[in-house]
Design a protein that fits this description.
This protein is an alpha+beta fold and about 160 residues long. Helix content is about 25%, strand content about 35%. It has one domain: Alpha-D-Glucose-1,6-Bisphosphate, Chain A, domain 4 (2-Layer Sandwich), CATH 3.30.530.20. Strand 4 and strand 5 form a beta hairpin. The radius of gyration is 15 Å and the shape is globular.
């Protein structure tokens, strides 16, 4: 049985920083781990490695598009997952200058139905941490953990 894909997950935040500053938090190892993940290995060029370890989960994929300072597109999935293996979905960050800094629009597409709730929970947490990190330099300690596995729960 194939996992059903749901509509794209979208969220956004406005941060008081220039797009160039926000961009670095999406493509550098120090920037990424300032708001998401404990470790990162990033090679920000088309087909370059995207690897971030988040709360015990190895997220793997590759960069698809790098358009400094406007857009970052990468693939996303989890090592060891049959439902969302490395590179199986796509995350897009679009950075738009606004009066007070930068609007960051995030779109996560290609998520199977069973992964929607958990990823929505994660992104709603991490997008706020991105905003904090961009302004403060680091979002501080992170105790976020994924929601319990819902693969067997077809009602949720």
């Amino acid at each position: 049985m194939m996992a059903t894909e749901m509509p794209d997950y979208t969220t956004s935040i406005e941060v008081n920083a220039l797009p160039e500053t926000v961009f670095d938090y999406l493509v550098t190892e120090d920037g990424m781990t300032a708001w998401m993940g404990q470790r990162a290995a990033l090679d920000p060029r088309p087909d370059g490695q995207f690897a971030v370890d988040i709360a015990g989960h190895a997220i793997r994929g590759h960069f698809v598009e790098i358009d400094r300072p406007r857009r970052v597109v990468l693939t996303w999935g989890m090592v060891g997952s049959d439902v969302l293996p490395p590179g199986a979905s796509t995350v897009e960050f679009t950075l738009t200058p606004v009066a007070e800094g930068t609007r960051v629009d995030l779109v996560h597409s290609g998520l199977p139905q069973t992964e929607q709730i958990g990823h929505a929970d994660g992104w709603s947490h991490f997008i706020l941490r991105l905003g904090t990190a961009v302004v403060a330099g680091h979002a501080g300690p992170d105790d976020w953990r994924p929601l319990p596995d819902r693969r067997g729960d077809m009602t949720g």
